[in-house]
Amino acid sequence: MKKLDHAFCTETRPYNQGARLTAYELVFDKIPATLICDDMAAMVMQTKDISAVVTGADRVVKNGDTANKIGTYQLAILAKYHNIPFFVACPTTSFDPCKETGEEIIIEERPDREMLYLNDIRIAAEGIIC
């Protein structure tokens, strides 16, 4: 198995799970890593020697369909476009044997507040709809 030379992790807005959790795990495991903005993924795939994209999954069903954070879909499309292998890594608790296809997966919806506020300070224009 090839040693991981460097990892890039996305911030995973708006709740910043990548910045808070993925980055922590990479640092904890002493894996050299760079935290990037979600919007940087395409440029990184184009300009860096990326050997694989690995993502998690909130749910995996019988036929292999997966559901994860909203940004995972664009990462999958970018990986395909750039001919980079795309892998889903998740614990067995993510597997749902009761659902046949992804059509049955209930997608989590996060509160609008996560996009409108940062540390209880409104950062978005009044009147904007989320």
Molecular structure report:
It is a single chain. The protein has 130 residues and is α/β, with parallel strands linked by helices. The protein has a single domain, classed as Translation initiation factor eif-2b, domain 2 (Rossmann fold, 3-Layer(aba) Sandwich). It is built from four helices and nine strands, in the order E-H-E-H-E-E-E-H-E-E-H-E-E. Strand 4 (59-61) and strand 5 form a beta hairpin. The protein starts with 6 loop residues before the first strand and ends in an 8-residue tail after the last strand. The model has no long low-confidence stretch (mean pLDDT 93).
Which series of helices and strands comes N to C? EHEHEEEHEEHEE
Largest sheet: 3 strands, mixed
Helix tally? 4
Strand adjacency order, main sheet: 5-4-7
The number of domains: 1
Ranges where pLDDT stays below 50 over 5 or more residues in a row are none
Instruction: Report the CATH architecture.
Output: 3-Layer(aba) Sandwich
- SS elements, strand count: 9
Mean model confidence by pLDDT: 93
* Cα-to-Cα separation, first versus last residue: 44 Å
What percentage of amino acids are in beta strands? 15-25%
Instruction: Report the CATH topology name.
Output: Rossmann fold
Nearest-angstrom radius of gyration? 16 Å
CATH class: Alpha Beta
Structural class: alpha/beta
Helix content: 25-40%
CATH superfamily: Translation initiation factor eif-2b, domain 2
Choose one word for the global shape.
globular
